[in-house]
Design a protein that fits this description.
CATH class: Mainly Alpha
CATH superfamily: dinb family like domain
Largest sheet: 2 strands, antiparallel
Shape: globular
Helix content: 55-70%
Number of helices: 6
CATH architecture: Up-down Bundle
Strand content: 5-15%
Number of strands: 2
Structural class: mainly alpha
Distance between the termini: 51 Å
Length: 186
């Protein structure tokens, strides 16, 4: 078994609270929605055009972000470790991916809403897609999910920009500032 390494607090506790994780996942959702909206402006054949990105195409990259969110929630919430991730080939259209992603986003929101601070230190035991067993604190996994999405949204944003459909600024601070503007205006 891989030992659990706790980051953040010297006492081994979570470095974040549920409210911060909820904010990060709202940012995650908003960034994903911007990407999907931009992708809807791209001709369908460009979605699957081979590209020099980790998952072979724009649709492959978007599907990977969705798949990672899904598999991590299943591991954390349901205690299930699927043996494989869905890929771009599992989605006939961007709309099909969007539909499944919307349902997954709702599942994450419901899961996050039920978490309490003490839950975040819970060790999640799971098996990755190569069969290796790990045990990791829940809060570390949740930070990873958002960070992982940021990496692959960056790859997708480069392709979208090349295809003439830039999603614009996807930075966390930009999102937080836009939320602050909306809340102070309302």
């Amino acid at each position: 078994m891989v030992p659990t390494r706790r980051l953040g607090s010297p006492q081994g506790g979570s470095a974040v609270r549920p409210i911060e994780l909820q904010t990060l996942f709202r940012y995650n959702r908003a960034s994903n929605e911007r990407l999907l909206s931009a992708a809807a402006q791209v001709p369908p054949d460009r979605l699957t055009t081979a590209a020099p990105v980790s998952h072979g195409s724009l649709l492959g990259t978007l599907a990977h972000v969705y798949a990672a969110e899904r598999i991590w929630r299943m591991r954390c919430q349901e205690g299930v470790s699927p043996p494989a991730l869905p890929t771009g080939a599992d989605f006939e259209t961007l709309a099909a991916l969007c539909d499944r992603w919307a349902a997954e986003t709702a599942s994450w929101a419901a899961y996050l809403a039920g978490l309490e601070e003490g839950d975040l230190d819970r060790a999640v035991r799971y098996t990755n897609t190569t069969g290796t067993v790990f045990e990791t604190p829940l809060w570390q996994i949740m930070l990873h999910v958002v960070n992982h999405g940021t990496q692959f949204r960056g790859e997708a944003a480069v392709l979208l920009t090349q295809y003439g459909a830039s999603p614009g600024d996807l930075d966390l601070i930009g999102y937080l500032r836009s939320v602050e503007r909306v809340s102070s205006a309302g």
